[in-house]
């Protein structure tokens, strides 16, 4: 285990075996302040805040990933390979692509399709499907059912483009049953698989791309509560 990288400098602070990873570093700060006890900050490089504390007596870390596959690709790779992290649970928002998925529903990403070339580095002679850890999926679904959350388990899209010049871009993904769109999980799942580690993405639907519906920033703050509690409860 290294003492630091160009992007993560713990300065002696510990990083837990399980890391919750929202995109927004300020959301990482919010989780640390509202859910964890005995919190110590382990990273502030580039204002990508990371914290370690305890949740119901369990050591848990939380750190921002930034936006997009290149950003989470760096941070998750370093956590898995340089800091002995075993599990990363991505928590974030997504845009729904199916009519039976509604605002505030929770999507548990079994697989992460993508239009990114991130997988090319592995020189696989075919198409590799990045998948989440099955045990984490089943634990997350059980916890979601326990608290009464409306959930959907299936395939999501990790897109490299937020503003796409092709206005029909989402249509074939919808036909193929993609539940929602975000921008990071494929890289996280690939890094976890390559390192022999565990990963899962859990998302709150903040926008509906077929119905032009969206939540306000204030509503998102409230609606993210169930997702964060599910992730914290299954942290090992």
TrEMBL record:
Superkingdom of source: Bacteria
Residue span, Nucleoside phosphorylase domain: 18-231
Site (Important for catalytic activity): 220
Record CDD domains: PNP_EcPNPI-like
Active site (catalytic residues): 207 (proton donor)
Species this protein is from: Staphylococcus auricularis
Catalysis performed (reactions): uridine + phosphate = alpha-D-ribose 1-phosphate + uracil; a purine 2'-deoxy-D-ribonucleoside + phosphate = a purine nucleobase + 2-deoxy-alpha-D-ribose 1-phosphate; a purine D-ribonucleoside + phosphate = a purine nucleobase + alpha-D-ribose 1-phosphate
PROSITE patterns: PNP_UDP_1
Residues at which a purine D-ribonucleoside binds: 7, 182-184, 206-207
Subunit structure: Homohexamer; trimer of homodimers.
Name of the protein in its database record: Purine nucleoside phosphorylase DeoD-type
This protein's record includes keyword Transferase: yes
Keywords of this entry: Glycosyltransferase, Transferase
InterPro entries noted in UniProt: DeoD-type, Nucleoside_phosphorylase_CS, Nucleoside_phosphorylase_d, Nucleoside_phosphorylase_sf
EC number: 2.4.2.1
Amino-acid positions noted as binding phosphate in the UniProt annotation, renumbered to this chain: 23, 27, 46, 90-93
The protein's role, per its UniProt record: Catalyzes the reversible phosphorolytic breakdown of the N-glycosidic bond in the beta-(deoxy)ribonucleoside molecules, with the formation of the corresponding free purine bases and pentose-1-phosphate.
The keyword Nucleotidyltransferase appears for this protein: no
UniProt cross-references to SUPFAM superfamilies, sorted A to Z: Purine and uridine phosphorylases (SSF53167)
